[in-house]
Design brief:
heterodimer; A: 371 residues; alpha/beta; Rossmann fold; six-stranded mixed β-sheet; 13 helices; globular; B: TIM Barrel; TIM Barrel; four-stranded parallel β-sheet
Chain lengths: 371, 224
C-alpha cells in the first residue's frame, strides 16, 4: 500500500489518473528542490497575497485566556485558501497545463482558484454543489466576475462531496490538458502532503509571531476542520513542539474524525462518515466549508497517534461565537473558524492561538436569517 | 447493477449471447462512473442493495447462469467489509473474479482482481497490470468516465497494441463508451472481447426481453 500517513492516505483512484499523479509528484519534488520556486512563491505571498498575516491579540473575546488570532481572514480573497491556490497554479504552469478544474464548498477555494487563474491566464472550471451555491451567493458572483465557469452539481447532497466527485470526473476526462487544483489536504497522494506544505506558512509564521509577542510557545493551537487544510497548515508549525496541544474542531454534524470510521473517499483512505457497509453518509453543517463527510488522511493519523485531538461544535454554538467575536473584537469571522472559536473557553490552556481561517462576508445572509 | 431483477436479467443477457456478466455493487460516490451508472447505483442503494444483499444477489445469479460472474465495485465497500473477507465471500457466492474501479495495480496488490489499464497508462504499468491481473486485462478505451459515446475512442488501437506487447498471452477486453454493435465490432477487431455497461443498464431498465435483444445485436455483430 502506498499510504503516506500510517495506514492512511494512498491513491485510490482509477488507473487513468495514475500517470497524472506520478507527473504531479515528480513536478512537486523538483519544485521543492528549486530555490527559484520557493522564491517565486514567497514573492507572490508578500506582494500579491498580503503575507505575513498579523497575529491579533483578542482580549475581549476570551478574557480568561491570552488568546491570539492568526488572521488568514486578511489574506487576499479573504481566506487561507489562496496559499494553496497560488502554489498549485505555479506548479500547473511548470507542468504546462492550461486548464484548471477545482471543487468548492463555501466558495472560498473556488474564488482563490478563479483569482489565480485570472492572474496566470489559465482556463478555470469550478464545480459547486447547488445547495452551496444558494447559501454562499457572494462567492458564486465573485467567481463569475473573475472569469471562472461555475458548474452547479445537482445530485446527492448537492454540497462539497458531490462537487469533489464531479471535479475528479472532469479531471479523469481531461487529464492531459488539465490540472486538478484540489482545495484541501484530501485526495490521492501527493495532494494531502502538497497542500499541507503550501499551507504550512500559516503555522510557521504564527509560531514566530507568538514567540515574539509572548516569549514562549502557546499552550494550545486551535483550528476548524472541514477537509482540514487550515488546521494542517497551522499544526505544521508546531508538530515538533510536544508541549503545544493541537486541537481540531469539526462541525458536530460533519465530524468525520469524531464519529467516523476508516473508509475510502475521493482517492484516499481516511476517517469518513460512512455506514457499516462503507456507503458515505450525509454530513450536516450550517457552514458549507465544514460540510464534508471526509477529512485529510494526515488528520486521521494525528488523531490515532494522539498528537492532535478533535472535538465538535454545533451550528448554534458556531453562530454564537460568530456574533461574539463580531461584537467583542470588531472582526466578522467566517462561520467555519467560528466553530474553532466556540471551543476556546473550555480549553485547559492559558496561551491559545486560533487560526481565523477566513472572513464572514459570505455568511452575512445566513447569519442574519437566523438572528 | 445488483438488484431484485438481476438474476433474470443475467439469464436474459446470457441467452442473448453474453460470455461474462459483471454485477455492480453500488457505491454512494462512484467517481469512475458517468450519469447512467451513477443513477443506477442510486436506485439500487435506495432499494437496499447493501453489500450483504449484493452477495445474495450474486449467489442467486450464480444458480441461474453458468458464465463467469464478476462483481464490480469501489474500495470503500471492501474497506468496510474487510478486504480478505470480501474476496472470500464473493468467491463463495460464485464470483469468478472482482473489479475494483478505484484500486490501481499498486494498491492492495494481494487482492486478486481484474486489473484495468488506460490510454494514459505507462508501458511499465501495463506490464505490472498484465502480470498481476486475474484472468483478463480490462482496457479502458478512453480517458473519461463510463457512459455511451458516439464513436469508439481512437485511443483503443494504441492501447491494445501496447497491451499485446507488454502483457503477452493475457486476454484483452475493451470497455467504457461501447454501446452499439458497430462499436463492439470495431473494439473487438483489436481485442479479445468487449465490456458493455451503461447501454446494457439502459436496456435492462426496459426489462429482460429488451436486454436479451440488445445483447443479441452485439453478439451478431461480433460473430459476423
Amino acid at each position: 500500500m502506498s499510504a503516506t500517513f500510517g495506514a492512511y492516505g494512498g491513491r485510490y483512484v482509477p488507473e487513468t489518473l495514475i500517470p497524472a499523479l506520478d507527473e504531479l509528484t515528480a513536478a512537486w519534488r523538483d519544485a521543492l528542490a528549486d530555490e527559484g520556486f520557493r522564491a517565486e512563491l514567497d514573492h507572490l505571498a508578500r506582494t500579491y497575497a498580503g503575507r505575513p498575516t498579523p497575529l491579533t491579540r483578542a482580549a475581549r473575546f476570551a478574557p480568561e485566556k491570552r488568546l491570539y488570532l492568526k488572521r488568514e481572514d486578511l489574506l487576499h480573497t479573504g481566506a487561507h485558501k489562496l496559499n494553496n491556490a497560488l502554489g498549485q497554479a505555479v506548479l500547473a504552469r511548470r507542468l504546462g497545463k492550461r486548464r484548471i478544474v477545482a471543487e468548492t464548498g463555501a466558495g472560498q477555494h473556488g474564488v482563490a482558484t478563479a483569482t489565480v487563474c485570472a492572474r496566470f491566464g489559465l482556463e478555470c472550471v469550478v464545480y459547486m454543489g447547488a445547495e452551496d451555491m444558494r447559501r454562499q451567493r457572494p462567492n458564486v458572483e465573485r467567481m463569475g466576475l473573475l472569469g471562472a465557469e461555475v458548474r452547479p452539481v445537482e445530485f446527492g447532497t448537492q454540497t462539497l462531496k458531490e462537487a469533489t466527485s464531479e471535479a475528479i470526473r472532469d479531471w479523469i476526462t481531461n487529464v492531459e490538458t488539465t490540472h486538478y487544483l484540489i482545495g484541501s489536504c484530501v485526495g490521492p497522494a501527493p495532494y494531502p502532503e502538497l497542500v499541507r506544505e503550501l499551507q504550512a506558512v500559516i503555522g510557521r509564521e504564527a509560531r514566530a509571531q507568538v514567540l515574539e509577542a509572548e516569549g514562549r510557545l502557546p499552550d494550545a493551537v486551535v483550528a476548524c476542520v472541514g477537509g482540514g487544510s487550515n488546521a494542517i497548515g497551522m499544526f505544521a508549525g508546531f508538530l515538533d513542539d510536544a508541549e503545544v496541544e493541537l486541537v481540531g474542531v469539526e462541525a458536530a454534524g460533519a465530524a468525520s474524525l469524531g464519529t467516523g470510521r476508516a473508509g475510502v473517499l475521493h482517492g484516499s483512505r481516511s476517517s469518513v462518515l460512512a455506514d457499516e457497509d462503507g456507503q458515505i453518509a450525509d454530513a450536516h453543517s450550517i457552514s458549507a466549508g465544514l460540510d464534508y463527510p471526509g477529512v485529510g488522511p494526515e488528520h486521521a493519523f494525528l488523531r490515532d497517534t494522539a498528537r492532535a485531538r478533535y472535538v465538535g461544535t454545533s451550528d448554534e454554538e458556531a453562530l454564537d461565537a460568530f456574533r461574539r467575536l463580531t461584537r467583542t473584537e470588531g472582526i466578522i469571522p467566517a462561520l467555519e473558524p467560528a466553530h474553532a472559536l466556540a471551543r476556546v473557553d473550555e480549553l485547559d490552556a492559558e496561551l491559545v492561538v486560533v487560526c481565523l481561517s477566513g472572513r464572514g462576508d459570505k455568511d452575512l445572509a445566513q447569519v442574519l436569517e437566523r438572528a | 447493477m445488483a438488484g431484485r431483477e438481476t438474476p433474470a436479467l443475467a439469464e436474459a443477457a446470457v441467452e442473448g449471447g453474453a460470455d461474462v456478466v459483471e454485477l455492480g455493487f453500488p457505491f454512494s460516490d462512484p467517481l469512475a462512473d458517468g450519469p447512467v451508472i451513477r443513477r443506477a447505483a442510486e436506485r439500487a442503494l435506495a432499494e437496499g442493495m447493501r453489500t450483504g444483499a449484493c452477495l445474495e444477489c450474486l449467489a442467486d445469479t450464480r444458480e441461474r447462469v453458468d458464465v463467469p460472474l464478476v462483481p464490480m465495485t469501489y474500495s470503500s465497500l471492501l474497506e468496510a467489509y474487510g478486504w480478505e473477507r470480501f474476496e472470500a465471500d464473493a468467491r463463495a457466492a460464485g464470483a469468478t473474479s472482482l473489479i475494483v474501479a478505484d484500486l490501481p495495480v499498486d494498491e492492495r496488490p494481494e487482492l486478486r482482481r481484474v486489473q484495468l489499464v488506460a490510454p494514459t497508462s505507462t508501458d511499465e504499468r501495463i506490464g505490472l497490470a498484465g502480470a498481476a491481473t486475474d484472468g483478463w486485462l480490462y482496457l479502458v478505451t478512453l480517458t473519461g468516465t463510463t457512459g455511451a459515446r458516439t464513436e469508439v475512442s481512437s485511443a483503443l488501437e494504441g492501447l491494445a497494441e501496447r497491451a499485446r506487447r507488454l502483457a503477452p498471452g493475457i486476454p484483452l477486453r475493451a470497455g467504457f463508451g461501447i454501446s452499439t454493435p458497430e462499436h463492439a465490432r470495431a473494439a473487438a477487431a483489436v481485442t479479445d472481447g468487449v465490456v458493455v455497461g451503461s447501454r446494457a443498464i439502459e436496456a435492462s431498465e426496459a426489462g429482460p426481453d429488451a436486454l436479451r435483444a440488445y445483447v443479441r445485436s452485439l453478439r451478431t455483430a461480433l460473430d459476423a
